Amino acid sequence: MKISVRTRGEPFEFDCAEGEKILHAGLRAGVGLPFECGSGTCGTCKAELGKGELDEGWQEAPGRAYVKEEKSEFLMCQASPRSDCTIGVRAKVDPLPDEVPVPGRMSGRITRFEMLTHDVCRFEVSVGSSISFNAGQFMLVGTEVVEGQRAYSMSDYHASTETLEFVVKQVPDGGFTNWLFAGDRTGSDLVLFGPLGVATYAPSLPNNLVCIAGGSGLAPMLSILEHAMEAGHFYTYEGDLFFGVRTECDIYLLERLKEYARKAPDKLRITVVLSDAATSTGLVGAHSGLRFDEGFVHEATMRQMAGRWENVMAYLAGPPPMVDATLRSLVMEAKLTPAAIRYDKFS
Predict the structure, then answer these.
(1) Rounded distance, CA 117 to CA 107, Å?
(2) What angle, 0 to 180 degrees and rounded to 10, lies between the N-to-C axes of helices 297-304 and 320-332?
(3) Beta-bridge mates of residue 161
(4) CA–CA distance from 208 to each of 135, 237, 334 (Å)?
(5) What's the topology of domain 104-196?
(6) What pLDDT, on a 0 to 100 scale, did the predictor assign at position 234?
(7) Predicted local confidence at residue 347, as pLDDT
(8) Is the CATH number of domain 208-342 3.30.460.20?
(9) Homologous superfamily of 2-88 in CATH?
(10) How far apart are the C-alpha atoms of 14 and 24, rounded to whole Å?
(11) Where are the domains of the chain?
């Protein structure tokens, strides 16, 4: 079926298969349709239906709260066409840049699953063929037994790989994570779409890196740091990672973080920040390669980065309140411009 898109700039047209999401078809065709989460949460991908018929998909998608039905608005990340359609997008739409990997739909199978804390797991997915992605990008991940897909960042980096690694935190009343955390999911089949996201690292980036993560927001930072180390970024530039959690029980992958710090001594500083508990002497003594602080992660970042904000690219990931608070601090206190801050909004 043909999808014709009216925009503020040039119009676009692309094919969309039966049952395929309009957003997915457009991105697959190299059309830079607007979106952020891609999973029905944020409402950024809303468009207006001019002609044709749609199946609007997941009726309980949180992003539907931003849709005005009287204006024939719908979410492109959820809707599939029932006929040729003409839609309107208020934003200016451009072709995807050449350096952005073209996303696509793929099937995967969980080949490794392990619990890292009581509510955080790591799992690996084999997708059966080689895929490339930029460090910091994410995939939409779903299963046939749970409606909708969820956005999860890759937590490692390879220039080309058939296996993707994810770190995921259980969400209260979250349909997908309730399924995921119900038991060892090794061998379970998944449906994925991607890679997606603009909060990415490239070896040509001429900046010091500041990565600020809360909870499972550590995942894309791991990918970014792995690529940066592989590219020799810390031979020339410096880096800081601030990893915020509530208590010691919520910390994970400390050995991996220590290995990162060991590979870039005096250049990469990694700080774990506890918001709801004091740092024990045992924790500090057992992990001498890392730093520890207390309070909210954005506050610790401001303290430790004081006077060091020149030539910085900042990356953010974590719960929405943490991301919002960090954005305010980066703009108001650190005086960073929007061009110096990268994040993908999942909710």
Answers:
(1) 27
(2) 30
(3) 131
(4) 16, 5, 14
(5) Elongation Factor Tu (Ef-tu); domain 3 (2.40.30)
(6) 98
(7) 58
(8) no
(9) Beta-grasp domain (3.10.20.30)
(10) 11
(11) 2-88, 104-196, 208-342
339's CB contacts (< 8 A; 6+ apart) are: none
3-state secondary structure of 80: strand
How is 177-207 classified by DSSP, letter by letter?
Answer: HHHHTTS--TT-EEEEEEEE-S----TT--S
Residues forming a β-bridge with 47: 74
DSSP string spanning 124-170?
Answer: EEEEEEEE---TT-EEEEEETTEEEEEEEEBSS--SSEEEEEEEEE-
The DSSP output letter for 287 is -
Taking each helix axis from N to C end, the angle separating 254-263 and 218-230, rounded to the nearest 10 degrees, works out to: 30
Taken in order 235, 138, 323, 35, the sign of the CA dihedral is positive
How does DSSP classify residue 9? Answer: S
Average pLDDT per block of 10 residues along the chain, 347 residues long: 92 95 96 91 93 90 89 94 96 86 95 98 97 97 91 96 98 92 97 95 97 97 98 98 98 97 95 94 88 97 97 97 96 97 84
Burial class (CB in 10 A: 0-12, 13-18, 19+), 30: middle
What pLDDT is attached to residue 233? 98
Spatial separation of the C-alpha atoms in residues 191 and 208, rounded to whole Å? 36
Tell me the torsion sign for CA atoms 62, 65, 70, 76: negative
In terms of DSSP bridges, do strands 291-294 and 46-51 run parallel, antiparallel, or are they unpaired?
Answer: unpaired
Distance CA 289, CA 260 (A): 9
| 82 half-sphere exposure, CB direction, 13 A CA radius | 8
